[in-house]
Amino acid sequence: MTSPSRKHAGPGAASDQSTVAEPTFAERARTLTYLGRIGSLSTISRKQPGFPFGSVMPYGLDERGRPIFLISTMAMHTQNLQADVRASLLVTEDDAGGDPLGTSRVTLLGNVLPLPAFEVAEARKLYLASYADSKYWVDFEDFSFYRMDVVDIYYVGGFGVMGWVPASEYDRSQPDPLADSVAEIIQHMNTDHKDALVLLAREFARIESQEATMITIDRLGFHARLKTQGGMRGARIAFLREVSNPAEARMVLVEMVQQARSGPSE
């Protein structure tokens, strides 16, 4: 008997958890590039025409989320770009030992060109703020600033979560306001408030669990991994209101725990 076909992507099975608000793919892509700052730049090989050539590439970001590179004419990727400006930049989520295919990643596709002379000073300041050691070679004659003008984006948020993001949406988006504090918040909640996370899952996701672990958090809510009698489950839990900084996130989480401890909501 032939078994039914299976796909790792797509809408998946119906869930008893209603749709919960979360950032758009454009916002998540913008947050990831903001946090990453080192990616894999693929240029088109001059030596082997048509083949991609990969390079480890530090980058800065301008106010529109466009990557800025400081590269030498001696580097093969620079020589490739001088022949063909088309390239892609892959940025992956920093992972502490989990399944790399379950982590977020984003690929920016665009044209990489030298910065106009009148924009170099600002780019230099921006880049040095992220990579202080580059002050030792930033003024070498063979080094120049290049920028990727993004034409398309492909975002993958883990298994079954993926899609194209129009460059215009990416351009208008901003990094999540909790981005710089995500690791600290998650560590605090998972270390000091594991019982509270079980309560939040019961009250706001309607899922009974023996153990709950926060895995991501953003301005609209958080994702948790739940250990239930039926096995491991994931849940998205929305905040009572949108937050704009870590202090507000803490305040909302405290309110939600208090509400969960007071009894079932109507």
Walkthrough of the structure:
The structure is a single chain. Strands 1, 2, 3, 4, 5, 6, 7 and 8 form an eight-stranded antiparallel β-sheet that branches. The protein has a three-stranded antiparallel β-sheet with strand order 9-10-11. Helix 5 (182-192) packs across helix 6 (194-204). It has seven helices and eleven strands. It has two domains: 25-172, Roll (Pnp Oxidase, Chain A), CATH 2.30.110; 179-262, Alpha-Beta Barrel (Split barrel-like). The termini are far apart. A hairpin with a 2-residue loop joins strand 9 (211-218) and strand 10. The radius of gyration is 22 Å and the shape is elongated. By secondary structure, it is of the alpha+beta class.
Order of SSEs = HEEEEHEEHEEHHHEEEH
Morphology:
elongated
CATH superfamily of the largest domain: Electron Transport, Fmn-binding Protein, Chain A
End-to-end CA span:
48 Å
Task: Provide mean pLDDT, rounded.
Answer: 90
Tell me the number of structural domains: 2
**What CATH first level of the largest domain would be assigned?**
Mainly Beta
CATH fold type of the largest domain = Pnp Oxidase, Chain A
| SS strand fraction | 25-35%
Sheet having the most strands: 8 strands, antiparallel
| Number of extended strands | 11
Low-confidence blocks of residues: 1-17
Which structural class do you get from the secondary structure elements?
Answer: alpha+beta
CATH architecture of the largest domain: Roll
Helix content: 25-40%
Alpha plus pi helix count: 7
